[in-house]
Amino acid sequence: MSQRWSSRKKSRLPLAGLLFMLVVTVMILFNERTIHQIHFHAATSHSQILPQASSTFNFVKPNLPANINLGAPLEVLDRFSRCNSTKKYSEKNIRLVDPYEEEEEEEDSSGHHGPKEDQCDVFSGKWVFDNSSYPLHKESDCPYMSDQLACQKHGRKDLDYQHWRWQPHSCNLNRWNVTDMWEKLRGKRLMFVGDSLNRGQWISMVCLLQSVIPRDKQSMSPNAHLTIFRAEDYNATVEFLWAPLLVESNSDDPVNHRLDERIIRPDSVLKHASKWQHADILIFNTYLWWRQDPVKIRWSSEEKGSCEEVKGAEGMEMAMNAWADWIANNVDPKKKRVFFVTMSPTHQWSREWNPGSEGNCYGEKKPIEEESYWGSGSDIQTMRMVKRVLERLGPKVSVINITQLSEYRKDGHPSVYRKFWEPLTKDRLNKPASYSDCTHWCVPGVPDVWNQLLYHFL
Ligand SMILES: *[C@@H]1O[C@H](CO)[C@@H](O)[C@H](O)[C@H]1NC(C)=O
Ligand SMILES: *[C@@H]1O[C@H](CO)[C@@H](O)[C@H](O)[C@H]1NC(C)=O
Ligand SMILES: *[C@@H]1O[C@H](CO)[C@@H](O)[C@H](O)[C@H]1NC(C)=O
Ligand SMILES: *[C@@H]1O[C@H](CO)[C@@H](O)[C@H](O)[C@H]1NC(C)=O
Ligand SMILES: *[C@@H]1O[C@H](CO)[C@@H](O)[C@H](O)[C@H]1NC(C)=O
Q1: Measured from the CB, is residue 183 less than 6 Å from ligand 2?
Q2: What is the DSSP letter of 345?
Q3: Which of 368, 387, 388, 450 to mutate to test the pocket of ligand 5 (most atoms within 8 A of CB)?
Q4: CB-based contact 219:235 (threshold 8 Å)
Q5: Whose CA is nearest to atom 5 of ligand 5?
Q6: Is 147-457 assigned to CATH 3.40.50.1110?
Q7: Where are the domains of the chain?
Q8: pLDDT digits (tens, 9 = 90+) for 388-435
Q9: What is the pTM of this model?
Q10: What are phi and psi of 60, to 5 degrees?
Q11: Alpha-carbon distance 283 to 400, whole Å?
Q12: Tens of pLDDT, residues 230-274
Protein backbone atom coordinates (compact mmCIF):
# COMPACT_ATOMS: atom_id res chain seq x y z
CA MET A 1 0.00 0.00 0.00
CA SER A 2 2.69 2.48 0.85
CA GLN A 3 4.30 1.87 -2.49
CA ARG A 4 1.03 2.50 -4.15
CA TRP A 5 0.64 5.83 -2.44
CA SER A 6 4.12 7.11 -2.75
CA SER A 7 4.26 6.23 -6.41
CA ARG A 8 1.42 8.56 -7.09
CA LYS A 9 3.02 11.93 -7.48
CA LYS A 10 0.39 14.28 -8.68
CA SER A 11 -2.37 12.75 -6.66
CA ARG A 12 -5.52 14.57 -7.57
CA LEU A 13 -7.43 11.91 -5.71
CA PRO A 14 -7.21 12.79 -2.07
CA LEU A 15 -10.80 11.88 -1.47
CA ALA A 16 -10.78 8.51 -3.11
CA GLY A 17 -7.50 8.09 -1.32
CA LEU A 18 -8.90 8.81 2.08
CA LEU A 19 -11.66 6.37 1.37
CA PHE A 20 -9.23 3.67 0.43
CA MET A 21 -7.20 4.33 3.51
CA LEU A 22 -10.28 4.12 5.66
CA VAL A 23 -11.36 0.80 4.29
CA VAL A 24 -7.94 -0.49 5.10
CA THR A 25 -7.88 1.26 8.44
CA VAL A 26 -11.16 -0.14 9.51
CA MET A 27 -10.02 -3.58 8.49
CA ILE A 28 -6.89 -3.21 10.52
CA LEU A 29 -8.75 -1.90 13.51
CA PHE A 30 -11.33 -4.56 13.24
CA ASN A 31 -8.80 -7.32 13.39
CA GLU A 32 -6.60 -5.77 15.99
CA ARG A 33 -9.14 -4.16 18.15
CA THR A 34 -7.98 -5.65 21.42
CA ILE A 35 -4.35 -4.82 20.86
CA HIS A 36 -5.27 -1.34 19.88
CA GLN A 37 -7.36 -0.78 22.95
CA ILE A 38 -4.84 -2.13 25.37
CA HIS A 39 -2.30 0.19 23.96
CA PHE A 40 -4.70 3.05 24.12
CA HIS A 41 -5.39 2.52 27.80
CA ALA A 42 -1.72 2.66 28.46
CA ALA A 43 -1.51 5.83 26.45
CA THR A 44 -4.32 7.65 28.18
CA SER A 45 -3.18 6.82 31.63
CA HIS A 46 0.09 8.66 31.18
CA SER A 47 -1.21 11.49 29.07
CA GLN A 48 -3.59 12.99 31.53
CA ILE A 49 -4.42 16.50 30.57
CA LEU A 50 -3.36 17.92 33.88
CA PRO A 51 0.34 17.37 34.15
CA GLN A 52 0.86 15.16 37.13
CA ALA A 53 3.83 15.65 39.34
CA SER A 54 5.52 12.94 37.41
CA SER A 55 9.13 13.44 36.65
CA THR A 56 9.19 10.83 33.91
CA PHE A 57 7.15 12.94 31.54
CA ASN A 58 8.31 15.97 29.87
CA PHE A 59 5.59 18.44 28.98
CA VAL A 60 5.89 20.82 26.08
CA LYS A 61 4.06 24.09 25.71
CA PRO A 62 2.80 24.36 22.13
CA ASN A 63 2.99 27.38 19.87
CA LEU A 64 6.54 28.42 20.47
CA PRO A 65 7.49 31.11 17.99
CA ALA A 66 8.72 29.35 14.91
CA ASN A 67 12.36 30.26 15.23
CA ILE A 68 12.92 30.13 18.94
CA ASN A 69 15.17 27.11 18.85
CA LEU A 70 18.82 27.28 18.00
CA GLY A 71 18.36 30.53 16.14
CA ALA A 72 17.66 28.58 12.96
CA PRO A 73 14.29 28.95 11.29
CA LEU A 74 12.22 25.83 11.55
CA GLU A 75 11.66 23.70 8.53
CA VAL A 76 7.99 23.87 7.60
CA LEU A 77 6.49 20.46 7.00
CA ASP A 78 5.21 19.84 3.51
CA ARG A 79 4.41 16.86 1.35
CA PHE A 80 8.05 16.28 0.63
CA SER A 81 9.03 16.05 4.28
CA ARG A 82 10.46 12.71 5.26
CA CYS A 83 11.70 11.15 8.43
CA ASN A 84 15.27 10.06 7.91
CA SER A 85 15.41 8.60 11.38
CA THR A 86 12.65 7.43 13.67
CA LYS A 87 13.29 7.16 17.36
CA LYS A 88 11.26 5.58 20.10
CA TYR A 89 8.60 7.88 21.52
CA SER A 90 10.29 10.13 24.07
CA GLU A 91 7.09 10.37 26.17
CA LYS A 92 7.10 14.09 25.74
CA ASN A 93 3.60 15.48 25.72
CA ILE A 94 1.66 18.62 25.07
CA ARG A 95 0.74 20.73 28.01
CA LEU A 96 -2.58 22.50 27.95
CA VAL A 97 -2.36 25.71 29.92
CA ASP A 98 -5.41 27.83 30.48
CA PRO A 99 -4.28 31.29 31.61
CA TYR A 100 -7.70 32.08 33.05
CA GLU A 101 -8.05 28.85 34.89
CA GLU A 102 -7.44 30.35 38.30
CA GLU A 103 -9.75 33.29 37.77
CA GLU A 104 -13.29 32.85 38.91
CA GLU A 105 -15.16 32.27 35.64
CA GLU A 106 -18.18 34.51 35.95
CA GLU A 107 -21.04 32.09 35.85
CA ASP A 108 -22.44 32.35 32.37
CA SER A 109 -26.01 31.20 32.58
CA SER A 110 -25.89 30.18 28.95
CA GLY A 111 -23.91 27.17 30.14
CA HIS A 112 -21.32 25.60 27.96
CA HIS A 113 -21.97 22.32 26.27
CA GLY A 114 -25.13 21.97 24.33
CA PRO A 115 -28.50 23.53 24.48
CA LYS A 116 -29.30 26.75 26.24
CA GLU A 117 -33.04 26.48 26.49
CA ASP A 118 -34.30 24.05 29.08
CA GLN A 119 -32.34 20.86 29.38
CA CYS A 120 -33.23 19.42 26.03
CA ASP A 121 -30.52 17.26 24.51
CA VAL A 122 -30.99 17.96 20.82
CA PHE A 123 -28.54 15.19 19.96
CA SER A 124 -30.83 12.54 21.37
CA GLY A 125 -33.72 11.82 19.07
CA LYS A 126 -34.80 9.99 15.95
CA TRP A 127 -35.09 10.46 12.22
CA VAL A 128 -38.58 11.19 10.91
CA PHE A 129 -39.49 10.90 7.25
CA ASP A 130 -40.61 14.37 6.14
CA ASN A 131 -40.91 14.94 2.44
CA SER A 132 -42.74 18.23 2.80
CA SER A 133 -39.91 20.25 4.43
CA TYR A 134 -36.86 18.24 3.37
CA PRO A 135 -34.50 18.52 1.60
CA LEU A 136 -33.71 22.08 2.66
CA HIS A 137 -32.12 22.78 -0.73
CA LYS A 138 -31.85 21.16 -4.15
CA GLU A 139 -28.67 19.48 -5.30
CA SER A 140 -28.91 20.83 -8.85
CA ASP A 141 -29.43 24.41 -7.64
CA CYS A 142 -26.02 24.66 -6.03
CA PRO A 143 -23.16 25.72 -8.31
CA TYR A 144 -20.62 24.75 -5.65
CA MET A 145 -21.67 21.13 -5.27
CA SER A 146 -18.82 18.66 -5.09
CA ASP A 147 -18.79 15.65 -7.41
CA GLN A 148 -17.87 13.62 -4.40
CA LEU A 149 -21.20 14.38 -2.72
CA ALA A 150 -23.66 14.92 -5.59
CA CYS A 151 -25.30 11.50 -5.36
CA GLN A 152 -28.36 12.30 -7.45
CA LYS A 153 -26.26 13.65 -10.28
CA HIS A 154 -24.23 10.46 -10.19
CA GLY A 155 -27.18 8.21 -10.62
CA ARG A 156 -28.72 7.58 -7.24
CA LYS A 157 -32.41 6.89 -7.87
CA ASP A 158 -33.71 6.24 -4.35
CA LEU A 159 -34.02 9.75 -2.94
CA ASP A 160 -35.56 9.09 0.45
CA TYR A 161 -32.18 9.83 2.00
CA GLN A 162 -32.89 13.53 1.33
CA HIS A 163 -36.20 13.57 3.18
CA TRP A 164 -35.32 12.78 6.77
CA ARG A 165 -35.71 15.31 9.54
CA TRP A 166 -33.90 15.02 12.86
CA GLN A 167 -36.41 15.10 15.69
CA PRO A 168 -34.99 15.48 19.21
CA HIS A 169 -36.95 13.50 21.80
CA SER A 170 -37.93 16.35 24.08
CA CYS A 171 -37.98 19.52 21.96
CA ASN A 172 -37.83 20.77 18.39
CA LEU A 173 -34.86 22.06 16.48
CA ASN A 174 -35.16 25.63 15.31
CA ARG A 175 -36.48 25.57 11.78
CA TRP A 176 -33.87 26.41 9.22
CA ASN A 177 -34.38 30.03 8.11
CA VAL A 178 -31.87 31.15 5.53
CA THR A 179 -32.56 34.90 5.94
CA ASP A 180 -32.18 34.63 9.65
CA MET A 181 -28.93 32.71 9.24
CA TRP A 182 -27.57 35.45 6.98
CA GLU A 183 -28.53 38.04 9.58
CA LYS A 184 -26.48 36.10 12.14
CA LEU A 185 -23.57 36.10 9.71
CA ARG A 186 -23.74 39.75 8.70
CA GLY A 187 -20.27 41.33 8.82
CA LYS A 188 -18.76 38.05 10.03
CA ARG A 189 -16.43 35.30 8.94
CA LEU A 190 -17.69 31.76 9.45
CA MET A 191 -14.90 29.24 9.03
CA PHE A 192 -14.85 25.45 8.92
CA VAL A 193 -11.48 23.90 9.74
CA GLY A 194 -10.71 20.23 9.29
CA ASP A 195 -10.82 17.28 6.89
CA SER A 196 -13.04 16.18 4.00
CA LEU A 197 -15.97 15.48 6.31
CA ASN A 198 -15.81 19.03 7.53
CA ARG A 199 -15.47 20.18 3.93
CA GLY A 200 -18.70 18.31 3.19
CA GLN A 201 -20.41 20.26 5.95
CA TRP A 202 -19.00 23.48 4.55
CA ILE A 203 -20.33 22.66 1.07
CA SER A 204 -23.70 21.88 2.57
CA MET A 205 -23.64 25.25 4.36
CA VAL A 206 -22.68 27.16 1.22
CA CYS A 207 -25.40 25.37 -0.74
CA LEU A 208 -27.96 26.12 1.97
CA LEU A 209 -26.98 29.79 2.03
CA GLN A 210 -26.24 30.72 -1.57
CA SER A 211 -29.77 30.35 -2.93
CA VAL A 212 -30.90 33.76 -1.67
CA ILE A 213 -27.84 35.68 -2.85
CA PRO A 214 -27.97 37.06 -6.42
CA ARG A 215 -25.31 35.45 -8.59
CA ASP A 216 -23.42 38.70 -9.16
CA LYS A 217 -23.28 39.40 -5.42
CA GLN A 218 -21.60 36.14 -4.51
CA SER A 219 -18.23 34.63 -5.29
CA MET A 220 -16.09 31.62 -4.51
CA SER A 221 -12.32 31.81 -4.39
CA PRO A 222 -10.47 29.01 -6.14
CA ASN A 223 -9.90 25.83 -4.22
CA ALA A 224 -6.86 26.32 -2.02
CA HIS A 225 -5.65 25.71 1.50
CA LEU A 226 -8.26 28.30 2.42
CA THR A 227 -11.34 28.49 0.20
CA ILE A 228 -13.72 31.42 0.63
CA PHE A 229 -17.36 31.96 -0.30
CA ARG A 230 -18.33 35.65 -0.16
CA ALA A 231 -21.70 37.34 -0.02
CA GLU A 232 -21.23 41.00 -0.79
CA ASP A 233 -24.41 42.50 0.62
CA TYR A 234 -23.95 40.82 3.95
CA ASN A 235 -20.22 41.52 4.01
CA ALA A 236 -19.91 37.93 5.15
CA THR A 237 -17.79 34.91 4.25
CA VAL A 238 -18.20 31.17 4.69
CA GLU A 239 -14.74 29.62 4.52
CA PHE A 240 -13.05 26.25 4.60
CA LEU A 241 -9.51 25.68 5.82
CA TRP A 242 -7.95 22.31 5.07
CA ALA A 243 -6.23 21.11 8.25
CA PRO A 244 -7.06 17.43 8.61
CA LEU A 245 -4.76 16.92 11.60
CA LEU A 246 -5.34 20.39 13.18
CA VAL A 247 -1.65 20.84 13.94
CA GLU A 248 1.02 21.46 11.32
CA SER A 249 1.63 18.37 9.19
CA ASN A 250 2.95 17.12 5.88
CA SER A 251 -0.67 16.72 4.73
CA ASP A 252 -1.65 20.38 4.74
CA ASP A 253 -1.90 20.73 0.98
CA PRO A 254 -5.58 20.23 0.13
CA VAL A 255 -4.77 18.38 -3.06
CA ASN A 256 -1.33 16.85 -2.78
CA HIS A 257 -1.08 15.18 0.55
CA ARG A 258 0.40 12.03 1.88
CA LEU A 259 -1.56 9.40 3.66
CA ASP A 260 0.95 6.65 4.08
CA GLU A 261 3.41 8.61 6.15
CA ARG A 262 1.73 11.29 8.15
CA ILE A 263 4.17 13.53 9.98
CA ILE A 264 2.87 16.07 12.47
CA ARG A 265 4.50 18.77 14.49
CA PRO A 266 2.49 18.34 17.68
CA ASP A 267 3.72 21.55 19.27
CA SER A 268 2.81 23.74 16.29
CA VAL A 269 -0.73 24.86 15.71
CA LEU A 270 0.27 28.39 14.72
CA LYS A 271 0.64 27.67 11.04
CA HIS A 272 -3.07 27.02 10.77
CA ALA A 273 -4.11 29.30 13.61
CA SER A 274 -2.71 32.29 11.75
CA LYS A 275 -5.36 31.61 9.11
CA TRP A 276 -8.25 30.98 11.44
CA GLN A 277 -7.52 33.49 14.21
CA HIS A 278 -9.65 36.31 12.79
CA ALA A 279 -12.74 34.23 12.07
CA ASP A 280 -15.80 35.05 14.19
CA ILE A 281 -17.37 31.61 14.17
CA LEU A 282 -15.17 28.53 13.95
CA ILE A 283 -16.20 24.94 13.35
CA PHE A 284 -13.50 22.33 13.87
CA ASN A 285 -13.32 18.60 13.37
CA THR A 286 -10.66 15.91 13.27
CA TYR A 287 -10.82 12.14 13.61
CA LEU A 288 -10.61 9.90 10.58
CA TRP A 289 -7.06 10.83 9.71
CA TRP A 290 -5.95 9.45 13.05
CA ARG A 291 -7.50 6.05 12.52
CA GLN A 292 -4.41 4.47 11.05
CA ASP A 293 -1.26 3.72 13.03
CA PRO A 294 1.43 4.89 13.34
CA VAL A 295 1.79 8.66 13.11
CA LYS A 296 5.25 10.22 12.98
CA ILE A 297 5.88 13.22 15.15
CA ARG A 298 8.58 15.82 14.92
CA TRP A 299 9.11 18.14 17.87
CA SER A 300 10.27 21.66 17.12
CA SER A 301 13.28 21.12 19.35
CA GLU A 302 14.47 18.13 17.34
CA GLU A 303 16.97 18.37 14.54
CA LYS A 304 15.68 18.26 11.00
CA GLY A 305 14.44 14.92 9.75
CA SER A 306 14.33 13.26 13.15
CA CYS A 307 10.98 11.77 14.11
CA GLU A 308 9.30 9.74 16.80
CA GLU A 309 6.45 7.35 16.27
CA VAL A 310 3.13 7.11 18.13
CA LYS A 311 -0.24 5.46 17.71
CA GLY A 312 -2.86 7.44 15.83
CA ALA A 313 -4.96 7.93 18.96
CA GLU A 314 -1.97 9.30 20.87
CA GLY A 315 -1.17 11.67 18.04
CA MET A 316 -4.75 12.86 18.02
CA GLU A 317 -4.65 13.58 21.74
CA MET A 318 -1.48 15.63 21.30
CA ALA A 319 -3.05 17.58 18.46
CA MET A 320 -6.24 18.16 20.43
CA ASN A 321 -4.22 19.46 23.37
CA ALA A 322 -2.21 21.83 21.20
CA TRP A 323 -5.43 23.06 19.61
CA ALA A 324 -7.07 23.38 23.04
CA ASP A 325 -4.12 25.39 24.28
CA TRP A 326 -4.66 27.85 21.45
CA ILE A 327 -8.39 28.06 22.21
CA ALA A 328 -7.77 28.53 25.93
CA ASN A 329 -5.38 31.38 25.29
CA ASN A 330 -7.05 33.13 22.38
CA VAL A 331 -10.80 32.76 22.58
CA ASP A 332 -13.09 35.13 24.38
CA PRO A 333 -16.47 33.40 24.16
CA LYS A 334 -18.23 36.74 24.11
CA LYS A 335 -16.47 37.69 20.87
CA LYS A 336 -15.80 34.41 19.13
CA ARG A 337 -17.89 31.27 18.87
CA VAL A 338 -16.06 27.98 18.60
CA PHE A 339 -17.66 24.62 17.83
CA PHE A 340 -16.20 21.17 17.70
CA VAL A 341 -17.94 18.55 15.56
CA THR A 342 -17.50 15.04 16.91
CA MET A 343 -16.51 11.99 14.88
CA SER A 344 -18.43 11.21 11.72
CA PRO A 345 -19.36 7.54 11.63
CA THR A 346 -18.66 5.19 8.74
CA HIS A 347 -20.74 2.22 7.63
CA GLN A 348 -18.21 -0.26 6.31
CA TRP A 349 -19.64 -3.46 7.76
CA SER A 350 -23.30 -4.27 7.24
CA ARG A 351 -22.97 -7.17 9.69
CA GLU A 352 -22.93 -4.60 12.46
CA TRP A 353 -26.56 -3.66 11.82
CA ASN A 354 -27.61 -6.76 9.92
CA PRO A 355 -25.84 -9.78 11.43
CA GLY A 356 -24.83 -12.39 8.90
CA SER A 357 -24.65 -10.01 5.94
CA GLU A 358 -21.38 -9.23 4.19
CA GLY A 359 -21.84 -5.84 2.60
CA ASN A 360 -21.41 -2.25 3.66
CA CYS A 361 -23.51 0.87 3.08
CA TYR A 362 -24.04 -0.03 -0.58
CA GLY A 363 -27.73 -0.48 -1.35
CA GLU A 364 -28.91 0.83 2.02
CA LYS A 365 -32.07 2.91 1.65
CA LYS A 366 -33.31 3.41 5.20
CA PRO A 367 -31.82 4.63 8.47
CA ILE A 368 -31.14 2.22 11.31
CA GLU A 369 -34.04 2.27 13.76
CA GLU A 370 -32.42 0.57 16.72
CA GLU A 371 -32.11 3.22 19.41
CA SER A 372 -28.51 3.93 20.49
CA TYR A 373 -27.02 1.88 17.64
CA TRP A 374 -23.25 2.41 17.63
CA GLY A 375 -20.88 0.97 15.03
CA SER A 376 -17.26 -0.03 15.40
CA GLY A 377 -16.03 2.93 13.36
CA SER A 378 -16.69 5.38 16.19
CA ASP A 379 -14.06 4.77 18.80
CA ILE A 380 -15.36 5.24 22.32
CA GLN A 381 -11.95 5.86 23.87
CA THR A 382 -11.37 8.66 21.39
CA MET A 383 -14.76 10.14 22.23
CA ARG A 384 -13.86 10.13 25.93
CA MET A 385 -10.60 11.87 25.20
CA VAL A 386 -12.36 14.53 23.11
CA LYS A 387 -14.89 15.04 25.86
CA ARG A 388 -12.17 15.51 28.48
CA VAL A 389 -10.36 18.07 26.34
CA LEU A 390 -13.52 20.00 25.50
CA GLU A 391 -14.72 20.04 29.08
CA ARG A 392 -11.55 21.76 30.15
CA LEU A 393 -12.33 24.56 27.70
CA GLY A 394 -15.68 25.25 29.34
CA PRO A 395 -17.71 27.97 27.62
CA LYS A 396 -15.01 28.60 25.02
CA VAL A 397 -16.19 25.74 22.88
CA SER A 398 -19.53 24.08 22.16
CA VAL A 399 -19.95 20.51 21.01
CA ILE A 400 -21.93 19.56 17.95
CA ASN A 401 -22.32 15.91 18.75
CA ILE A 402 -23.21 14.40 15.40
CA THR A 403 -21.97 10.91 16.12
CA GLN A 404 -25.07 9.16 17.44
CA LEU A 405 -27.49 10.76 15.03
CA SER A 406 -25.28 10.04 12.04
CA GLU A 407 -24.71 6.45 13.19
CA TYR A 408 -28.34 5.77 12.29
CA ARG A 409 -27.84 6.98 8.72
CA LYS A 410 -26.38 4.00 6.91
CA ASP A 411 -28.43 5.20 3.91
CA GLY A 412 -26.78 8.63 3.78
CA HIS A 413 -23.43 7.82 2.12
CA PRO A 414 -22.64 8.20 -1.57
CA SER A 415 -21.64 4.51 -1.95
CA VAL A 416 -21.13 4.22 -5.73
CA TYR A 417 -23.06 7.38 -6.60
CA ARG A 418 -20.23 9.88 -6.77
CA LYS A 419 -17.32 10.64 -9.00
CA PHE A 420 -14.33 8.35 -8.59
CA TRP A 421 -11.10 9.80 -9.84
CA GLU A 422 -9.33 6.50 -9.91
CA PRO A 423 -10.17 4.26 -12.86
CA LEU A 424 -12.17 1.30 -11.63
CA THR A 425 -11.26 -2.15 -12.80
CA LYS A 426 -13.96 -4.41 -14.24
CA ASP A 427 -13.52 -6.63 -11.25
CA ARG A 428 -14.42 -3.89 -8.86
CA LEU A 429 -17.24 -2.58 -11.01
CA ASN A 430 -18.80 -6.00 -10.75
CA LYS A 431 -18.69 -5.74 -6.99
CA PRO A 432 -20.09 -2.30 -6.15
CA ALA A 433 -19.55 -2.75 -2.43
CA SER A 434 -15.82 -3.04 -3.05
CA TYR A 435 -15.48 0.59 -4.05
CA SER A 436 -18.42 2.14 -2.22
CA ASP A 437 -17.78 5.34 -0.29
CA CYS A 438 -19.33 4.70 3.11
CA THR A 439 -17.45 7.57 4.74
CA HIS A 440 -18.60 10.82 3.17
CA TRP A 441 -22.24 11.94 3.01
CA CYS A 442 -24.55 12.83 0.16
CA VAL A 443 -25.64 16.47 0.00
CA PRO A 444 -28.49 17.30 0.40
CA GLY A 445 -28.61 14.97 3.35
CA VAL A 446 -27.03 14.37 6.73
CA PRO A 447 -24.58 17.36 6.72
CA ASP A 448 -27.53 19.74 6.25
CA VAL A 449 -28.78 18.57 9.61
CA TRP A 450 -25.36 19.11 11.20
CA ASN A 451 -25.65 22.69 9.94
CA GLN A 452 -29.15 22.99 11.25
CA LEU A 453 -27.75 22.03 14.65
CA LEU A 454 -25.10 24.71 14.29
CA TYR A 455 -27.80 27.22 13.40
CA HIS A 456 -29.76 26.09 16.45
CA PHE A 457 -26.87 27.11 18.71
CA LEU A 458 -25.92 30.39 17.04
C1 LIG B 1 -44.34 11.91 0.60
O2 LIG B 1 -44.34 10.66 1.26
C3 LIG B 1 -45.61 10.06 1.36
C4 LIG B 1 -45.49 8.84 2.24
O5 LIG B 1 -44.40 8.05 1.83
C6 LIG B 1 -46.15 9.75 -0.04
O7 LIG B 1 -47.43 9.20 0.05
C8 LIG B 1 -46.18 11.03 -0.85
O9 LIG B 1 -46.55 10.75 -2.19
C10 LIG B 1 -44.82 11.72 -0.83
N11 LIG B 1 -44.92 13.02 -1.46
C12 LIG B 1 -44.02 13.49 -2.29
C13 LIG B 1 -44.26 14.87 -2.82
O14 LIG B 1 -43.02 12.86 -2.60
C1 LIG C 1 -36.89 34.15 8.90
O2 LIG C 1 -36.06 35.11 9.52
C3 LIG C 1 -36.38 36.44 9.12
C4 LIG C 1 -35.30 37.34 9.69
O5 LIG C 1 -35.03 37.04 11.02
C6 LIG C 1 -37.79 36.78 9.62
O7 LIG C 1 -38.11 38.09 9.25
C8 LIG C 1 -38.77 35.79 9.00
O9 LIG C 1 -40.05 35.99 9.53
C10 LIG C 1 -38.35 34.36 9.30
N11 LIG C 1 -39.18 33.45 8.53
C12 LIG C 1 -39.84 32.46 9.09
C13 LIG C 1 -40.62 31.61 8.16
O14 LIG C 1 -39.79 32.22 10.28
C1 LIG D 1 -16.97 43.89 6.70
O2 LIG D 1 -16.65 42.96 7.71
C3 LIG D 1 -15.34 43.07 8.22
C4 LIG D 1 -15.15 41.98 9.24
O5 LIG D 1 -15.24 40.73 8.63
C6 LIG D 1 -15.16 44.45 8.85
O7 LIG D 1 -13.83 44.60 9.27
C8 LIG D 1 -15.48 45.52 7.82
O9 LIG D 1 -15.43 46.80 8.43
C10 LIG D 1 -16.85 45.29 7.23
N11 LIG D 1 -17.10 46.27 6.15
C12 LIG D 1 -18.23 46.91 6.05
C13 LIG D 1 -18.33 47.83 4.87
O14 LIG D 1 -19.15 46.80 6.84
C1 LIG E 1 17.55 14.54 7.65
O2 LIG E 1 16.75 15.20 6.67
C3 LIG E 1 16.83 16.60 6.66
C4 LIG E 1 15.85 17.12 5.64
O5 LIG E 1 14.54 16.75 6.03
C6 LIG E 1 18.25 17.04 6.40
O7 LIG E 1 18.33 18.45 6.41
C8 LIG E 1 19.16 16.45 7.45
O9 LIG E 1 20.48 16.77 7.18
C10 LIG E 1 19.01 14.93 7.51
N11 LIG E 1 19.78 14.41 8.63
C12 LIG E 1 20.49 13.29 8.55
C13 LIG E 1 21.20 12.88 9.80
O14 LIG E 1 20.55 12.63 7.54
C1 LIG F 1 -21.55 12.59 22.21
O2 LIG F 1 -22.67 11.80 22.47
C3 LIG F 1 -22.40 10.48 22.93
C4 LIG F 1 -23.71 9.78 23.09
O5 LIG F 1 -24.42 9.78 21.93
C6 LIG F 1 -21.64 10.54 24.23
O7 LIG F 1 -21.30 9.25 24.64
C8 LIG F 1 -20.37 11.34 24.03
O9 LIG F 1 -19.69 11.48 25.25
C10 LIG F 1 -20.69 12.72 23.47
N11 LIG F 1 -19.44 13.39 23.14
C12 LIG F 1 -19.05 14.58 23.62
C13 LIG F 1 -17.73 15.09 23.19
O14 LIG F 1 -19.75 15.24 24.34
Answers
A1: yes
A2: P
A3: 387
A4: no
A5: 404
A6: yes
A7: 147-457
A8: 999 999 999 999 999 999 999 999 999 999 999 888 888 888 899 999
A9: 0.85
A10: -115, 135
A11: 9
A12: 999 999 999 999 999 999 999 998 888 767 789 999 888 888 999
